[in-house]
Design goal:
The protein is α+β, with helices and mostly antiparallel strands. 46% of the residues lie in helices and 33% in strands. A hairpin with a 5-residue loop joins strand 2 and strand 3. The radius of gyration is 14 Å and the shape is elongated.
Length: 84
């Protein structure tokens, strides 16, 4: 619950306060936060750009897939009004 509120505030600052044009971010596939990111991009009109197979190596020595996301300011602003 707290993470979602913090993420919502961060998006608001990024697009409304600092007027960024686009936000790109990524997550290691299987990380529990992946589901929250999927919901956020669905809510604000973002998209999954793609998945890089065996892109990053973690401390366990294994390679993991990396999922990349993007949200544009105009999509965020349009969907922010709808979701209020």
């Amino acid at each position: 619950m707290i993470f979602g509120a913090d993420l919502g505030r961060a998006l608001k600052d990024i697009f409304e306060k600092y007027n960024f044009r686009k936000l790109g971010f990524s997550v290691v596939v299987g990380n529990p936060v992946e589901k929250a990111y999927d919901r956020i991009i669905g809510r604000y009109g973002g998209r999954v750009v793609g998945t890089h197979i065996k892109q990053c190596r973690l401390t366990d020595g294994e390679y993991y897939d990396l999922k990349k996301y993007e949200i544009f300011r105009e999509d965020y602003m349009k969907n922010r009004r709808i979701n209020k």
